[in-house]
UniProtKB/TrEMBL annotation:
EC numbers, comma separated: 3.4.24.71
Topological relation to the membrane, as annotated: Single-pass type II membrane protein
Domain of life: Eukaryota
Record-given protein name: endothelin-converting enzyme 1
Residues that span the membrane, as ranges: 107-131
Taxonomic lineage from the root: Eukaryota, Metazoa, Chordata, Craniata, Vertebrata
Origin species: Balaenoptera acutorostrata (Common minke whale)
Disordered, as annotated region: 23-44
Single GO term (MF): metal ion binding
Reaction equation(s) it catalyzes: Hydrolysis of the 21-Trp-|-Val-22 bond in big endothelin to form endothelin 1
Co-factor(s): Zn(2+)
InterPro entries hit by this protein: MetalloPept_cat_dom_sf (IPR024079), Peptidase_M13 (IPR000718), Peptidase_M13_C (IPR018497), Peptidase_M13_dom_2 (IPR042089), Peptidase_M13_N (IPR008753)
Gene, per the UniProt record: ECE2
Amino acid sequence: MSVALQEMGGGGNMVEYKRATLRDEDAPETPVEGGASPDAVEVGKGVIPVSPGPRPGMTSGTPGSSGLPWRVTCPHLRSISGLCARTMVGFRKRTRHLLGSHTQLELVLAGVSLLLAALLLGCLVALWVQYHRDPSHSTCLTEACIRVAGKILESLDRGVSPCEDFYQFSCGGWIRRNPLPDGRSRWNTFNSLWDQNQAILKHLLENTTFNSSSEAERKTQRFYLSCLQVERIEELGAQPLRDLIDKIGGWNVTGPWDQDNFMEVLKAVAGTYRATPFFTVYISADSKSSNSNVIQVDQSGLFLPSRDYYLNRTANEKVLTAYLDYMEELGMLLGGHPASTREQMQQVLELEIQLANITVPQDQRRDEERIYHKMSIAELQALAPSMDWLEFLSFLLSPLELGDSEPVVVYGMDYLQQVSELINRTEPSVLNNYLIWNLVQKTTSSLDRRFESAQEKLLETLYGTKKSCTPRWQTCISNTDDALGFALGSLFVKATFDRQSKEIAEGMISEIRTAFEEALGQLVWMDEKTRQAAKEKADAIYDMIGFPDFILEPKELDDVYDGYEVSEDSFFQNMLNLYNFSAKVMADQLRKPPSRDQWSMTPQTVNAYYLPTKNEIVFPAGILQAPFYARNHPKALNFGGIGVVMGHELTHAFDDQGREYDKEGNLRPWWQNESLAAFRNHTACMEEQYSQYQVNGEKLNGRQTLGENIADNGGLKAAYNVWCSVRTPESSHEGLVTDPHSPARFRVLGTLANSRDFLRHFGCPVGSPMNSGQLCEVW
């Protein structure tokens, strides 16, 4: 079984856009410019599925691979929600990027509105078209139709004209009826479905008659039960992490430390325990040679969701103060002295501010052709000489033998050169404090309640969320999903998945692909040679639906997790074992070719994604359920739900980043110059359009959100794609600076304002808010 490491952190990663996921789940799930969690791996038949730190599907308060869930992004994947998949080794589900930019209220409203708008627009337009095409005006009166029609009517705000504000028209009623739950910064259908899936998994894992023939499934139950051992976790307190720090060589914040061991501490923190100080290293398909895996290095190292939090110090004074308070509190919980802990943590924060200064913003990293640099380890050593790269990479990928000529793909040459200079001029004690702080971030969510309380205070400032009311069992389901997601998926699929759904979904994808290709044929700005290549790429898109077959084969599933030791007695040790295991899995992939059947999301995940290096779209079993999809729903409803997702993901193959990859998944120029120039003109129109939208007085970044806006607009043409959402002001701000998706409101308004079908069916006159008279169309 082969596994390609999927590192899900650090919005700064070049890989950040490579896996386009469907939704931007909770605030914690937004991409972070400086940190990447290297614990996640793609899983296919015969592959080891280890998940990365915190990732897709978390609610406020979910621990992440870095301790706080906000540091996770989805490298290589592009999802419709913006959320990373649940294949993570660290912690993930409660809140992926704890420090994301969404507050509780914003996040909650945003999610729920999102799906309602998609369903509503899909249904309204589809039913409108059906009404005018069907002379008899027959009405669907099945129980499913009546139930959904009632929900749609409840969601409407009929006091608003759809041509004035379709978002408010379609979602206003729902927003009034659904205040944010306590402890949440956003709420949506994705969250609701994940809660539903969690309840199913809880029942399966706590069943007193649990007696699986699979050792991997038994490990899953042991891991879950170890997380529930609250009394034992409280009894141990901070001691497990204190012992680990002593083992590594000490921490100047809490006591004696080895002053001459920078490389040894770096190897332990970034290698053994998979934290990402200064940079991140992972194994993944070579973008320019997608049939082979290669070592990849990118920028990382920031704790807050975006460099803007560090650099705009006046506007973010409250956040920076809350972060420093958090750092100080954790330092003291681990044995630091009040007089010196804050001073030393202030130095660590100043180092992170210097890292933020050299970190390249997301919107300047969207052209992978420009940021892709392949070199040897020897050349990397010359570029960034402050550390011994051959020693570090050999340790990280042990027992593989590496030499100076080993190829490495670097996605931040200027950053690595500057970070090397920064390391050379920084005091050894500050470097040590920063390295251990990265380890502390990653591991504290496995400790006692005091650490969780400290985290909640930071989240309140970042997102406007109050104390989380998430029950312990939900946190433990999320952690189990991160650690043993495919073994957990085996239980989920056997208990819930309707196998016929796969065949129906494949038929829907075929219809949407056909609709997209028909639209290609009507583009007047594309030359015939590029058009034919684009059609061939669309034809070649590979779809995976439901789950990987190996999870239902006990021996194959056991082989995937062979070597991962899980005890019911120590949750903290189970997490450390997981980091070690994921590092070994990563090393095992370098000399193996990528497998097209590898999965980057677990079956129970409520999301979907497009992966350009494989030219594939993936729809897990978790999203193939109501309200996205149901066998007894009319076709219009399913196309308004899961059809939206399918159209969105397929269009990612042709957004401003996906279009750089050919049908084989290789990064190469395959467009004719005149068509490329025309494409850029059309996308410039869309970038300008979205840059005019504002949230709480802040303008959207049309460049940063361009790929998702293209997918929303292109997906709408193929499946009437639309979104709704509500967020708190703090969460909205974080989203504007970190999220590749536009805010939910403008995913609705911007997309429909560019839809000729919408304007025609709803009769919106030129000059109305929904019809400016200028349409920005790409696909």
